[in-house]
Amino acid sequence: MSQTNFQKKFYQNAERVMTVCKWIIYAVMLGSVLGIVGALFSYAISYATQARESNPYFLLLLPVSAVLIRLFYHIFHADDDQGTNIVLSAIHSNDEVPLRMSVLIFFSTILSHLSGASVGREGAALQLGGSLGAWFGRIFNFNAQDKKTMIMCGMSGVFAALFGTPMAAAVFSMEVVSVGIMLYAALLPCVITAYIAHGMATLLAVPTPYYDIIALPDFTLRAGIAALVFGAACGLISMAFCITLRKVEKFAHTAFYNRYLRAFVFGTLLLGGTLCAGSQEYNGAGGGAIALAVLGKPFTWAFLIKILFTAVSIAAGYKGGEIVPSFFIGATFGSLVASLCGANPSLLAAIGIGCVFCGVTNCPLSSLLICFELFGLAAAPYFIISIAISYMVSGYYGLYSGQKIVYSKYKSIFIDTKAV
Length: 420
Fold this sequence. Notes:
Elements: H1 3-54, H2 62-75, H3 84-92, H4 100-115, H5 122-139, H6 144-163, H7 166-175, E1 178-179, H8 187-203, H9 221-255, H10 259-277, H11 287-295, H12 302-316, H13 323-341, H14 345-361, H15 364-375, H16 380-393, E2 404-407, E3 414-418
Parallel strand pairs: 1-2
Antiparallel strand pairs: 2-3
Helix pairs in contact: 1-4, 1-6, 1-8, 2-4, 2-10, 3-6, 4-5, 5-6, 6-7, 6-8, 7-8, 7-15, 9-12, 9-13, 9-14, 9-16, 10-12, 11-13, 11-14, 12-13, 13-14, 14-15, 14-16, 15-16
């Protein structure tokens, strides 16, 4: 080897080592910050939820809080806020993710949970993390490509801090952007950011969820076929959820052009629905019902009511996201199917969580990792077969219109379209 070639390879290898070291350093820094932010956000959401559950009069704030959130976004010049789609679009292009998004989503999500909107936390996690990741990239003068990696790292960090699933968080931020292809150059920084943020949140006593599947049956051919059928049904439920969200939101915009009137009317509808339900079971993210379903408590049509409550909440303009409600829908749908078929309700609730999450996000790997982190590996054969069929059956529907479907779900062809 000539001296010139040796020097060239030496500098190439040295550059690679420096790049790895750079990402490790920045990921540790970002993960530490996001772990603290995620912990503060988690505590704020928990306190807001506890306050509402112990004092039901907070539910009367539903119409008012929807209007206040709209006003809050108007003051900060974000009337046309597209939520998580802004973050996804910024990764596809060179658009900036404004720092003010983190402030807006932080306080509006807390207010949504305090008043009882049927929303989750993951939309806030993705927007909060993406906004802070983009800001981090700007202050350190990253180039356009590296800024996109920082946005994904930010999404992974807050997601891991809030949900306690660092493996799924690291992969989800890459997988959700472009279905069928992932930017693997972001894998190392996303993994480190997710685990550092999760570790920091754990140090700050943010609880890590874990559920035991009761009386897990052996995986047999018959059980595999049953899991396949149930996974397909969950894929259809996820389609119904996405379609309902789109239709209700479109109707709300058509019927009430004035955003403040729309917020007040749909906030009032949500309050009326809560009073008719006679409990707060469908308000907030629904973590309690998810846990009960996995423990084997029977539910009937709770998944349909949750779909309606969440659709009305999103149409009203409440903030938080739809992924934890999708967990609720999947878990309670599994409970219903188990009661009708005499199957294991705990197992079907767990499978339902993974399958409906996969159907609404088009992220099978992340769904599988979430199931592993929430329920362990013992039920892995059930998870992988049911999630695989749910991914296929759910079509090109999804929660995020900014998500790109790069490769077809059914053929090895490039289609480059957007989620419906």
